[in-house]
Specification:
The protein is an alpha+beta fold and 383 residues long. It contains 9 helices and 15 strands. It has helices at 7-11, 19-32, 42-58, 61-70, 90-97, 132-137, 282-287, 349-356, 368-382; strands spanning 124-130, 139-150, 165-167, 176-183, 186-193, 202-204, 216-227, 236-239, 255-261, 268-270, 273-281, 289-294, 300-305, 314-317, 335-342. A 4-stranded mixed β-sheet has the order 10-11-15-14. Strands 1-9-8 form a 3-stranded mixed β-sheet. The chain has a two-stranded antiparallel ribbon with strand order 2-7. A hairpin with a 5-residue loop joins strand 12 (289-294) and strand 13. The longest helix has 17 residues, at 42-58. The protein is elongated and about 105 Å long.
Length: 383
Amino acid sequence: MAQKRDYYEVLGVEKNATEDQIKKAYRTIAIKYHPDRNPGNKEAEEKFKEAAEAYDVLHDPQKRQQYDQFGFDGPNMGGFGGFNAASMNMDDIFSMFGDIFGGRAGFGGFGGTRTRQQHRGNDLRLKVKLSLEEVARGVTKKFKVRKDVECSHCHGTGSEDGTGTESCPTCHGSGVITHTTQSIFGMMQTQGVCPTCGGEGTVVKHKCKHCGGTGVEKGDEVVEIKIPAGVAEGMVVNVPGKGNAGHRNGVNGDIQVFIEEEENKTFIRDDNDLIYNLLLDFPTAALGGDVEIPTIEGTKLKVKMEAGTQPGKTLRLRGKGLPAVQGYGRGNGDLVVNVSVYIPKYLSKEEKNAIEKFKDSDNFKGDADTKESIFKKFKNYFS
């Protein structure tokens, strides 16, 4: 497939489009470029796949939010890959999205393309609390997850003796049942998914005694989840294919990892910037000198403070903050140092005598410009 186009552009909808508008737009495009209408047309097939990929993201509220914020990399921030229509065959796409067209004979009710309805396993949700240091460098976490896994006895088939499946006696293999009702407008027919086979068209001949024919059982799995650097509280990292197993060798669900942040005792986070409150001793503030500023990497930076440094002074150390999350933004934020000057509460007799000598000095009373600056700060604060 050529270079990706904006998903909203692919479906021809606005960014504030509703779920119904997105679904309708996708259905229109999918019918137009359906393989049954365009046999052997590679260009139509590419457009069909492109629309499926766009719909996969935009019809899912969480994936759509991630896409709106972070672009194409957003829905799959976990680094495990995700829906890529270009690498999927048509049967895969039909099994995932055929239900929005209300029929099993292809997408638009055309003959020819009849696919097995696959069960999709449920998604799992996990919360992970990260330290600011882990956010800065990115981290891989391991979780022991209790979930539906492939049945160890029948290997996911649901069949006890390997005899497989037979045509569903309720829907006779169609996967749907038709209801006919009388209305004021005459006889009305509606179709729905067959309750016996769940839309598959087949049922297991001899159900596995271990799993009851579902093809899944409860089990534990250790899952490695890669958290990219720069994530923030409230973000969701989606890990495709690591959720519950689908019944009878169906499609696995996903794991959605919700990010939480631990409070940091040294730094305050402001987007990708880090704020550090430096408490400067009075002699260094007055005379100047070198101070050490901690960084999120664990190292310390030596910074020269000018003589006469005033409380409230701000230093900005470029690029010493947090990295931008992958696929969104570039580089690192800054480390912002807010300077306060420490005034001791208790003084020895010698210290008091030393300070008393400067009490009447005009130089220690502050000039007019300094007083005006302080007045403006307080005025703005209380206004």
